[in-house]
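Weekly sync, protein design subgroup
Attendees: M.S., D.O., the rotation student, P.L. (late)

Item 1: inverse folding check
M.S. brought a backbone from last month's batch and wanted to see whether the design step gives back something sensible before we order anything. D.O. pointed out we never logged the input encoding, so this time it goes straight into the notes. Structure tokens as presented (287 positions):
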């Protein structure tokens, strides 16, 4: 440690420091002060963080802490903290621990009685939600979507009837496959917002009914590039007097071959509706 470093607390502390998700101007003055004055910066990718530090003229030493070594290296950092160091934790972009490393380190610090101080700052999911036009009073962050189609479909089935806004991160090489799987499970009318390259030059925040959004992304290869978040409007129950025409037509056809209750259940599953609403419509409208 050096005597020249000055921090807001003399107690050895782990600082959770958000970094910009694109626009370097979004870093806070407090974050710069902490990164300058701590003894060590624990970084997800020291090369990536090195470019950020160089841009702002910060020379603090870095220590690699990523998904593949965190459980082994976290204790090393805790021991440094207990020995008197102050450390900043950063990820490649945004707030650490939000789909980024840091959980094991923070847990060990708290168990060891080390002071943990979080700084507010950039976070892609909050940035996307604030401009999405979707309900923001209740939402859940679901992290990255599974890499395999079955896993994604299982996840979409899990949230199909969830009434709050659901937010996922996705990689560009899987975006079309994920949207197609989402369409299969949630149907073409569910409103979805694609937020990509947030705070960067080619930022896009575009919402459409899912059937239209899939076609829009397919038609423009540029929308298949960059860092992405997908925001899904929560489930909205459909009242009996506003059932989609396609659903009632399907029920009419199915009821000719099946008992009404079973036909209503099948139509409800296909169109992501409540079976009781369709069953009631059938009782009132079908002979």
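Designed sequence read out in the meeting:
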């Amino acid at each position: 440690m050096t005597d020249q470093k000055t921090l807001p607390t003399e107690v050895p502390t782990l600082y959770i420091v958000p970094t910009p998700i694109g626009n370097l101007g979004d870093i806070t003055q407090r974050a710069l002060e902490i990164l300058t004055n701590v003894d060590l910066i624990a970084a997800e990718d020291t090369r990536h963080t090195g470019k950020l530090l160089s841009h702002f003229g910060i020379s603090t030493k870095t220590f690699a802490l990523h998904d593949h070594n965190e459980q082994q290296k976290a204790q090393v950092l805790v021991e440094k903290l207990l020995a008197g160091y102050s450390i900043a934790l950063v990820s490649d972009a945004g707030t650490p621990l939000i789909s980024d490393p840091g959980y094991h380190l923070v847990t060990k610090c708290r168990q060891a009685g080390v002071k943990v101080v979080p700084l507010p700052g950039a976070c892609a999911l909050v940035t996307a939600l604030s401009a999405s036009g979707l309900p923001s009073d209740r939402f859940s962050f679901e992290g990255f979507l599974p890499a395999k189609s079955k896993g994604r479909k299982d996840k979409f089935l899990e949230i199909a009837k969830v009434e709050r806004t659901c937010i996922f991160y996705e990689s560009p090489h899987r975006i079309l496959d994920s949207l197609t799987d989402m369409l299969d499970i949630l149907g073409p009318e569910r409103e979805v917002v694609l937020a990509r390259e947030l705070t960067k030059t080619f930022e896009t925040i575009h919402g459409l009914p899912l059937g239209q959004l899939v076609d829009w992304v397919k038609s423009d290869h540029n929308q298949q590039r960059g860092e992405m978040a997908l925001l899904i409007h929560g489930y909205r129950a459909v009242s009996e007097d506003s059932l989609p025409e396609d659903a009632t037509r399907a029920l009419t056809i199915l009821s000719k071959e099946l008992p009404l209750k079973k036909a209503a259940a099948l139509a409800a599953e296909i169109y992501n509706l409540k079976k009781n609403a369709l069953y009631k419509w059938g009782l009132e409208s079908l002979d």
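Discussion: DSSP finds eleven helices and ten strands in the chain. Residues 172 and 225 are 5 Å apart (CA to CA).
Action: P.L. to compare against the previous round before Friday.
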